[in-house]
Amino acid sequence: MKSRVGKIFRNAGKGIDCIVFLNGTEPLHDMTFFYITGFTSGLFEGSAVFTYPDKSLRLVTSLLEQESARRADFPVRIFKSIQEREKMFKSSLRGCRKIGVNPPELTYRNYLLLKKLVPKAELIDVSEAVMKARVVKDRKEIATIRRACKISSEVAKEIIPYIAAGVKEYELAARINFLMQKKGASEPAFETIPASGPNSAEAHYTAADRTVQKGDFVLFDFGARYKKYVSDLTRTYVLGKAKKKQKEMYEIVLKAQRTAMRRIRPGVKASTVHNAAARMIDKTKYRGKFTHGLGHSIGLSVHDGMGLGPFSDFKLEKGMVFTVEPGIYVRGYGGVRIEDDIVVTKGGCESLTTADRNFIEI
Known about the structure:
By secondary structure, the chain is of the alpha+beta class. The protein folds into two domains: 2-135, Creatinase/prolidase N-terminal domain (Creatine Amidinohydrolase, Chain A, domain 1); 139-351, Alpha-Beta Complex (Creatine Amidinohydrolase), CATH 3.90.230.10. The chain contains ten helices and 19 strands. It has a six-stranded mixed sheet, with helices on both faces. A three-stranded antiparallel sheet has the order 7-10-11. The protein has a three-stranded antiparallel sheet with strand order 8-9-12, with helices on one face. Helix 9 (244-263) packs antiparallel against helix 10 (270-282). The N and C termini lie far apart (47 Å).
């Protein structure tokens, strides 16, 4: 894990004596804690990892987590009370005048604790340095994401026989979650979306009790969490014989995704990729019906810091992992989204999700 610590400190610049990652209670965790430690199990609520410019790190955790912490190949200190926790935190920060923190994942309570323990120290926002380190995945991370993608890709195929007139949306969501965990996922990466009929026009729909009907679009957006890392996949099917408009919408979205994927390679501006898909859709009668960014980085979080949007001015690098998910949404009628997870490679990109992208009538 020292190489990951080194990446963050290089991005943060000189002068920082320590960078600390503190966890609140679930779900208020700093996922960089797991990025640094490499732990794939344990909650580590109230724990902290302290990192230093020489790439060393030190974990302070509770008695509850001592079994999970035994896997560490770096110093671990175990506290048995709140008082011991504060003493260990304070000793880990002794002599540190400039302390890096990660505000997007730091609770206000933990911020106040740091101010109390080291009142004379300057707390410095290093969240951008953290994001830049985490967005470029190493081989181990990519292998883990690939496994999460394999799980979701297989489930996208296996859910098809369960789609039938009369089934409830929430029943399909439950089946997807069951299938993912049966294949080794620890949990869904996020709340599974099974949107049918006009509900498929709502990009972030939540499963409800609508009954699937013949002729519906049936859109599934789901992901698996495997060893803390996630996948994120969307497929849209039609139950029964598709209408001409449904097939037309699907083929436009698929063409937009393929167009965008051809643009992906190191050195390309992220906005260029989004705009390629958006222009493709806007040349059709569905202009303005693609209402979100083309994709987002994934890793330990479903939204891991960067995105493929119209104003994204960063350049792609080898090892970045993104979703590519164009869509068309027609209010009151339905929507189509096709989402895959890709890794940027030396000469382009590789799709980590392998579920069939062709138009499927059930």
